[in-house]
Amino acid sequence: MKRALPLIALATLTACGLRPVYGGGSHGAVASALGNVEVAPIEGKAGWLVRNALNDRLAAMGQGDAPRYRLVVKLDDDIAGFGLRSDAAITRERRTLRARYQLVDAATGAQILDDTAGSDAGIDVTSSEYATIAAEDTALERLSQRVADQIVTRLALHSRKAANP
Prior knowledge:
Low-confidence stretches: none
Distance between the termini: 40 Å
Number of helices: 4
Helix content: 40-55%
Largest sheet: 4 strands, mixed
């Protein structure tokens, strides 16, 4: 019975229709679509971080001769204080990074996908201004990675859906 249970589980898993997103590896439909995405320049420090993170993830998929798609991203980076001490000094901040992105066909200029991604992080405000600024920068670096991951995941899911309607 102990040996039959894994076989039954495997049989039910294959019958449910699950397919890997990156099926076919670097030669699959999703990898080739993601490898042909060019990321447009994004304004500001957050933009530089997000663009580099996106390029790192998309370059891993391989590159075609000429990009078929252009990814246009607009960011909204906000820091808000919300923890207060009795002397009205802020003790906690929330940094929020939101991205609105559009995938555009480079040949026709047609918009293929329009979506948003975002994340936030909490920051402790200390008596040291240097430590607070360092924490805000570290939070921005982490948020940039998270937003880039969300964008690439959604692009991959869209590419898979477009390849297998």
